[in-house]
């Protein structure tokens, strides 16, 4: 490779020498020196420059120090800038990197015409690089201005929003100034938060905004004691007054507590004459809204009339009880037992029929939750018959004896033996007591189980869920008889009638069976 480059160098030098130093015989003297038409003096040789003098060239920082360093196929000698004003040179393509030429040879090559071209290209290349860098700097400045403008707009918008929000936070929410308006009924649902209660208050027209009520509620620590139910609160109230009214002692309305075994209608005790309030009386008392002359209540008579309606769907009678209720022998007692014992809530602002419907519907759901609809396999009774039997258990037994009393009922029904429960005799009487008379027991009614076999025509009281569960799952046993023998409620069970008679004697000795008539 060294010989090849040496021969190429020699050819270039020869061509350049021929071109630059053509011989003109007229301009040369006999000694062969150029005299310009005159004889050369002894010092004229000092002005001659040897052809090995290196012609200065400009180099780019990116270019190699020596132009004779080899370049590979992927490393062109000149950068392609799209211009065709420079001729192409056919240089031999090295098969392998050649050895670096001596510095003197590099200088000689640099002096030649061919090697002078890269210097011009380098100057043009540097000019283009500078232009590109200037354009890039200009573009960066323009982008920075654009980004700065966008950031400025965003900062101004964020600042405006923050100022607006800050001003809004200091501005109090809308609130009524008073005076308050008429009372309205507001429902608090199970699990309601203060925010949800506030929304209900706004919907009912009690407060002007949820924000005002929520702020007042947060400041009152008693809000955590609010129970689900219905409350009477003046409309258009200032938020603080609305919260105080909600927490007031007399604000809750429509809250009904029905004791186990209570009946729809009032009854009186034979011995004391005291009135035992029925369910209708309890509902009427819980339905009152307002105080004094402005108080409004649903009356006992209105509820009794509504409960006697033939519109069973309007009363909310469940489908599993509808046929038996429609066949009830006494319309005034047709919904007996369909209102369950326990704590119930209703909207007192509704009509008597709407109130009964709400109570019956919620009671039916409670009954069905115990498994009432699937209990026939264990007691061989329909759901409505199970409800009737549970009302007897409620009136005849203490909680600990309920499963055994339920078994006595099932056993007697299987052998078609009359139940003979005193509670069924008292059901149709206005004056009642534990002991019944022979006359009362002999009186035939749709409910008197002394005068007929089977179950009464309808439930005789509001059963508790404990009584209902006992009837759905009676305790196993062969008992046919039971009797309470003292005031403590001690009850004895047996399958032997003769033993039962001896137990009755114990009851008589304790005085529990004495009549007050």
Please tell me about this protein's structure:
- It contains 18 helices and ten strands.
- The chain is elongated.
- The protein is 43% helix and 7% strand.
- A hairpin with a 5-residue loop joins strand 5 and strand 6 (275-276).
- By secondary structure, the chain is mainly α.
- The chain has a three-stranded antiparallel beta sheet, covered by helices on one side. The protein has a three-stranded mixed beta sheet with strand order 6-5-8, with no helix packed on it. Strands 4-7 form a two-stranded antiparallel ribbon.
- The protein has helices spanning 2-20, 103-111, 113-170, 194-203, 210-218, 239-246, 279-286, 300-307, 312-315, 319-326, 352-368, 376-379, 383-396, 402-414, 422-426, 438-442, 465-472, 497-510, and strands at residues 183-188, 229-234, 252-253, 255-258, 267-269, 275-276, 342-345, 431-432, 481-484, 491-494.
Spatial order of the strands forming the largest sheet: 1-2-3
Based on Cα principal axes, name the global outline: elongated
Mean pLDDT: 81
Sheet having the most strands: 3 strands, antiparallel
The helix-and-strand class reads mainly alpha
Query: What's the helix count?
Result: 18
The total beta strand count reads 10
Strand content: 5-15%
Taking pLDDT < 50 over at least 5 consecutive residues as the criterion, the unreliable ranges are 25-93, 95-101, 106-111
Please write the string of helix (H) and strand (E) elements. Answer: HHHEHHEHEEEEHHHHEHHHHHEHHEEH
Which range best describes the helical content: under 10%, 10-25%, 25-40%, 40-55%, 55-70% or over 70%?
40-55%
N- to C-terminal separation? 146 Å
Rounded to the nearest angstrom, the radius of gyration is 57 Å
């Amino acid at each position: 490779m060294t010989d090849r480059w040496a021969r190429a160098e020699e050819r270039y030098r020869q061509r350049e020498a021929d071109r630059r130093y053509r011989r003109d015989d007229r301009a040369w003297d006999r000694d062969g020196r150029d005299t310009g038409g005159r004889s050369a003096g002894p010092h004229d040789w000092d002005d001659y420059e040897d052809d090995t003098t290196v012609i200065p060239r400009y180099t780019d920082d990116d270019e190699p120090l020596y132009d004779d360093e080899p370049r590979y196929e992927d490393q062109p000698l000149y950068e392609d800038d799209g211009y065709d004003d420079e001729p192409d040179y056919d240089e031999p393509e090295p098969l392998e990197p050649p050895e670096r030429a001596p510095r003197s040879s590099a200088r000689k090559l640099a002096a030649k015409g061919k090697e002078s071209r890269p210097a011009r290209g380098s100057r043009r290349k540097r000019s283009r690089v500078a232009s590109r860098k200037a354009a890039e700097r200009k573009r960066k400045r323009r982008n920075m201005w654009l980004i700065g403008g966008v950031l400025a707009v965003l900062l101004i918008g964020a600042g405006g929003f923050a100022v607006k929000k800050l001003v809004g936070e200091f501005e109090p929410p809308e609130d009524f100034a008073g005076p308050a308006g008429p009372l309205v009924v507001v429902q608090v649902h199970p699990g309601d938060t203060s925010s949800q209660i506030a929304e209900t208050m706004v919907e009912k027209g009690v407060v002007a905004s949820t924000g005002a009520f929520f702020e007042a509620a947060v400041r009152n620590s008693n809000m955590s004691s609010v129970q689900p139910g219905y409350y009477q609160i003046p409309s258009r109230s200032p938020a603080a007054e609305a919260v105080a009214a909600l927490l007031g002692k007399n604000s809750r309305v429509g809250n009904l507590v029905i004791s186990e075994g209570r009946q729809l209608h009032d009854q009186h005790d034979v011995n004391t004459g005291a009135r035992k309030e029925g369910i209708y009386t309890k509902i009427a008392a819980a339905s009152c809204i307002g105080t004094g002359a402005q108080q409004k209540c649903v009356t006992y008579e209105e509820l009794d009339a509504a409960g006697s309606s033939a519109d069973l769907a309007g009363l909310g009678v469940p489908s599993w009880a509808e046929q038996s209720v429609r066949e009830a022998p006494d319309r005034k007692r047709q919904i007996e037992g369909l209102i369950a014992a326990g704590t119930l809530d209703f909207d007192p602002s509704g009509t008597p029929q709407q109130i009964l419907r709400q109570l019956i519907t919620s009671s039916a759901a409670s009954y069905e939750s115990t498994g009432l609809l699937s209990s026939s396999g264990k007691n061989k009774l329909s759901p409505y018959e199970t409800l009737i039997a549970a009302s007897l258990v409620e009136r005849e037994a203490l909680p600990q004896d309920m499963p055994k009393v339920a078994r006595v009922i099932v056993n007697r029904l299987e052998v078609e033996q009359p139940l003979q429960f005193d509670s069924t005799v008292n059901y149709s009487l206005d004056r009642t007591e534990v002991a019944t008379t022979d006359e009362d027991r002999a009186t035939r009614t749709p409910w008197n189980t002394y005068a007929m076999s089977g179950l009464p025509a309808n439930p005789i009281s509001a059963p508790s869920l404990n009584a209902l569960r006992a009837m759905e799952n009676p305790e196993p046993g062969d008992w046919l008889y039971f009797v309470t023998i003292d005031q403590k409620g001690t009850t004895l069970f047996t399958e032997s009638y003769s033993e039962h008679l001896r137990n009755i004697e114990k009851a008589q000795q304790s005085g529990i069976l004495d009549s007050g008539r």
